[in-house]
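Internal tracking record. Fields below are filled automatically when a chain is submitted to the structure queue. Please do not edit lines marked as system-generated. If the sequence contains nonstandard residues, flag them in the REMARKS field before resubmitting.
Queue: standard
Priority: normal
Entity type: single polypeptide chain
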Amino acid sequence: MKLNIKSLEKLVKQGESHTLEFKKTTGQLSAIFETVCAFLNEEGGAVLVGVTNKGQMVGQDIADATRQELARELNKIEPSAQAEVHIQYISVKENKHIIAIQVAAGTHVPYTYDGRAFYRNQSTTSKMSQHHYEQLLVKRGQLNHSWEEFLAVGYDINSLDHNEIRRTIQDGVNVNRLPPEATRDTIEDALVRLKLLDQGKVTNAAMMLFAKEVFPAYAQCMLKMGRFIGTTITGNFMDNQQIYGNIFKMLTETDHFMRRHLPIASFFQTNQFERIDKPALPVMAVREAMINAVCHRDYSVRNASMSLAIFDDRLEVWNNGTLPPQLKLDDLKKTHGSFPRNKLIANVLYTRKFFEKWGSGTNKMIADCRADNVPEPEFTEYSSGVSVTFRFKEPIGAKPIANNRPLVKVRREVILEIINKHCEGASIQQIIAELSHPPSQRMLQKDLKYLKEQGLILVKRSGKNSTWVLKDQNIK
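SYSTEM-GENERATED OUTPUT FOLLOWS
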């Protein structure tokens, strides 16, 4: 803003503040530009030279040497702030001028002056701590380059699942999102095509999508899944899993988990001989929520994970990472733009036709729920993340179970019945195949361990070919 004598007088009357500093002369050049640096690192401000700390506009003489000194000190600010700092000379009395140095908030925070960073503490300029400076450096890096673009230190192309990469290329060609010649790419060429290789080195995005092993270096690649008994997370659970793996593994495990725990209604339509199996929720809508989650997650937070929780009355998907500033929760229920936090990851999923159009995911969830005549999904923000909640038309609690016995107890009784049928011993695979609602293999192993500790079953053979028998069965 260009100042004149009237606007200058009005500004001076405001007195020194978080965004306004008075200096009597350019004899205080270092202090002047320390404050300029502080303004750049925060919300901007102005330094008025030729004004006493009591607000008297005394002005000072201006010579070519004065202008050169100001230019020289401004050049000591890094990164360059020429575009953010505007210097104006305003005549206040004969041969006397006020130097108005107006500073806009910097776009490449943090800035340093003469090798040090500064910040404003109310109306005082202070040296910035090393910790604060490092935090701002990280933030600057995230603005200029997202976490997914950083190089994966200690990893190379051999750390990736080449079969999954080839499958991605082939799927992209099949749906016309990649040219036919892409199928002739080497693995390195394919990664370059997908923008997952930088100067021959794999990026974090490549690891998220295709890593063979993610733990412990990429501990954030974890998916928590639970089937809780009741409507609160504090209750007992039928199944509880923690999966480490790349994005495609997590999406696959999500599908398996939902198939195990979402009730299926089977029916026949008029003039149709094939049975129709319909889950309690539109699986594609939940899958869309998971795809949204992996595209918008904040992967820079190593101690966070995604979660899928099934309760008696609802299913919830949560991912860390708040909505972008361009969007509000209400925008998710209408046509809106797409602002994925992880554009490289989103592009690969789009290439494989995991979603159709950018920005249409939440609207597709709503449309799928309406088509299945179930309540529309609910979108909320909490714990620095976004959740999508799908509610069942009717609770899916354990209605068939008599006398309200715990589901885990009933399941263990059924396991004993299955083992009893197999005189030669039942393997874990056989037990899973015969359970109507099988838990995860990890959960089944817990059940078997419990039954063994109770003295009800024994292991007939150990290792991969282990089988289980009742304790009173004849073990050969």
